[in-house]
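Field log, afternoon session.

UNIT: design team B
ACTIVITY: writing a sequence onto a fixed backbone
BACKBONE:
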């Protein structure tokens, strides 16, 4: 099952759209959040490359370097500029288990859902192969 998401946005999805998409298909093996502006020509390869790794506590996603300044703040004072060299942000495409998507929906109060919230404590995000 594929849900289109804005290409330049953080990986978030409309909760109603995700609920409707999950309800349409009974036997969903993976949920794919796909950048709406990106061609789907490589969608089968992305899904095939990620399918073996996806589990309720494991998602597979494109990972991009963090380029914005990250500051640790206490009160109204900047106390540290965080080293970004090991930080990554999750961007679409994102491939996850339907259990993860349903957990994220259950944790959300409606509206916009962050599917990675369904991973829970100790969950993992692996980089897309290739």
């Amino acid at each position: 099952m594929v849900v289109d998401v804005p290409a330049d946005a953080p990986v978030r999805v409309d909760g109603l759209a995700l609920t409707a998409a999950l309800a349409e298909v009974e036997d969903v093996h993976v949920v794919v959040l796909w950048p709406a502006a990106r061609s789907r020509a490589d969608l089968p390869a992305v899904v095939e490359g990620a399918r073996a790794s996806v589990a309720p506590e494991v998602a597979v996603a494109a990972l991009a370097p963090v380029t914005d300044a990250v500051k640790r703040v206490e009160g109204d004072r900047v106390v540290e500029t965080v080293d970004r060299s090991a930080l990554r942000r999750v961007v679409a495409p994102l491939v996850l288990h339907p259990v993860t998507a349903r957990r994220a929906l259950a944790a959300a109060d409606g509206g916009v859902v962050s599917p990675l919230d369904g991973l829970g404590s100790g969950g993992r995000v692996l980089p897309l192969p290739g």
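LOG NOTE: The chain has a mean pLDDT of 82.
NEXT ACTIVITY: expression trials, pending approval
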